[in-house]
Amino acid sequence: MADISNYAINVPAEQLKLLSDKLAIATFPTPVDFSDDWNYGVPLEDIKRLAHYWANGFDWRAQEARLNKLPQFSTKVDVDGFGSLSIHFVHKRSHRENSIPLLFCHGCGDWGFAVTRMMGILYPQNVLASHLNMSTKPSTIGMALTDSPIALLSWMYEKLHDWTDDYPWTDDEILTWVSIYQFSVAGPAASARIYYENIHASRALTKKILEYNEATKLGLSYFPRDIMVLPSAWGPVVKMAEDCRVSDLCTLHCHMLSVLRTPSLVLLHIPYLSTNMAHQAHNIPWTTLSSCLSWRLSNRCEGGAADLHLNPRRDRGKKLRHFTTAFARNIHEHAECEIRKHADDSNPPPARDEVVVDDDAAALIAPIIKRWRQSVEYRLGMNNTRLGACSHQSDDCGCVLPRARRKMAAFTEVFHAQGCYSDMHVGSSGFFNAEVFTAMLLHGQMQALFRICSHPEVALQTWWEERECQCEEYFGWSRASNSALDAYILLNVLLHFPQTWGKGQADYRRLKTYQEVVYRITKGSVDELPAYPHRRFFGIADGQFKDNDSWDSPHSRERWLRPKSSRRWRDTGGKSQGSVLGHIPYEAFVDLDQISEYLPSSQDVSHVRWVLCKKGLPAEVANIILQEARYHAQRRLPVPDDPLHSNNSDELRMYLTYNWQLITRSAALGARMGMQIDWEQQLGLLAERS
Fold first, then answer.
1. Does Ribosomal protein appear among the keywords (predicted)?
2. pTM score, two decimals?
C-alpha cells in the first residue's frame, strides 16, 4: 500500500494572479431580452456579478484556510492502464469503538457512483451496504473549462441552481465551489475524464455497475429535483425513500449536489448506518436468507397469523443450505479464535481439589446464582442467600455459591438419566455446577472455563442438552447458545424487512415468529439462567412467562375469546383458529398470562436519583432509598418493547454482539471438551422450532 501523507491546500500565487487577469479581460455575450431567463441557461447578470466579485472581492485564502481545518491526506493508487492516480481525501476517525467505516464518494464527474458500485462488486466482503442518490469526449469540454474561468463558472453555476432544492447559495459558497475545480491539481478538465475512461476500460466489468449485486445491500433516496431515478434492480434494496430518509448505509454516493443541497436530511441518517446493519454481515449471507422470506399480514401456513413466509422458489433449498453452511463455518472460525486466545496447553490441568472459580469470578456471578436459586427454591428446597466469597467446606453453609461448588471436582459429575417425575438430577451437584458453568459463560469468564474444560474428567459435555423428564423440555448449558441463536437470527432477519418497523398491522412485533421467540427465550424453567440477559433486553420480568404456561388467565381469555387451558384463539363467531400468537398486538401478547409491570431502565434510575437529590437528599441517602425500594435497572432499551427503534440502536448492536459471543464461545468450549457439535443441524432445529 502506498504511503499516506498529510495534505493542505495551497494554491500558488501565480495561479491566483492568472485567474484575476483572465477575469479582467473576460468577454460576455451581448445582452438580449432573455439573457436573464433561467429557461435559456445561467443569467448573464448573475455571471457578471459573480465574475466581478471573484476578481475583486472574493478572498480565496480565507476559504482555503477554512478548508484546511479539515483533516486532509493524500496517497497514490495504481490503476491498471492509467498509471498512478493521486487521491486527496478527508479522514475523520469515529469516537465509537468498532464503528463501521463510512465512505463518502463525491459526485461530479460521477466517480462516486462508479467507485461505490464497483467496490460492492469486487469486494462484497468489505462493503456492507451502499447508498446511491453521464459517455462523452472529455477533452472538448475540458479545453473550455480549463482556459476560461467564465466557462467554468457558468457550467458550475447552472448545476448549482438547477440541481439543488432552492438552496440559498451565497456568492462566497458558489465561488468557493467553483474555485476548488479551478485550482485542483489535475485541473477542471479532469472531472470529465471518468466518462471516457469508464467506457473505454473493461466493458464487461463496467457493465456490472448496472447489474444486480446480491452481495451488497442498497439504499436509495430520491430528492425533489434529482436528474435521474435510481433503479432498485441494482441490488437488494434495504430502503427506498424520498428526501433521503434512508437507513442501512455504509458507502454513500450522492450525485453531484445531494449532500450540499439538503445536508440536514443526509446527516439525519448517518447515526442509522450501524443501527440497522445486520451483524457479521460481511461473513454471514443475511441477504440470501431474507430473500427466501416474505412478510405476510395473514399467512395461511400459520393459521392466518401475521408472519414471515418461506417463498416457493426453486432455488430456496440451495440458498438456505448456502446460508447455514456459511453461518456454521463462521461459528467454527470464531470458535478457533477463542481457543487460540484462551487455551493454554503449557499448564497442567487443575487438581480435583483446586478452586477453579476464584473469588473475583464468584463475586461476579453470585447475584445471578442467587436469583436462580431463589426462583427454583420451591423445587430444590434451597434457601441460600449469602453473597460473597465462601470459605466453608460444606454445601449447607447458607452461601449462594459454596466453596465446594467452586472446586474442579464439582465439575466432574456425570449426568445420569432419571425416571419420569423424579427430578433427582436438578438437585444434584452436577446440575448445580452446570448452572455455575452457564453463569460463567454468560459473564465471559473464558480463561477459567477453558481451564475447567482442560481437565480429563470434566463431565460438562454430559450436561449439554438433556431432559428433566421424557415429557418435558430440554435443559442444559446448550440453552445459552440456543437462545442466543434464536434472538440473533430473528433480529438480523427483521433488519432486512424495514416495512415492519412501523406501528400498526405491519408491526414486526405482531409476527408469530417474533412472539414465539420472545416467549421461548424469556420463559421460566429449572435452568433459567440463559433467559436473564434476554429478559433484560426485551423488558420481560421474572415470572412473566412461566414454564408450561397454558395462557388461560381470565384477563387474556376474556379479551381474546380463547378456550380455557389452550393456546388457541377464537374469532367473534367462536370458531377455533389455532395459536393466538401472530393474531394479537405485542402488548397483548406480553399480558397473556398476567399484566406486565413497568421495568425501569438505567435512565429511569438516574432520573429518580436526580429527583431525590433535587429535594435536598445527599447522594448516599438517595442510593440507600433506591436500594431499599429495589428500584434498579431491569431494562436495557431506552424505548421499551421496540428493539428496532432508532433510539435503541446502541443497545441493539451490543445485544447482537453479545449473542454472537455466546454462540461462538459455546462452540469453543464444546470443541475444547472434544464435543462434535453440528452447528448446521442446530440451525435446522432452530428452523423447526420457528
1. no
2. 0.63
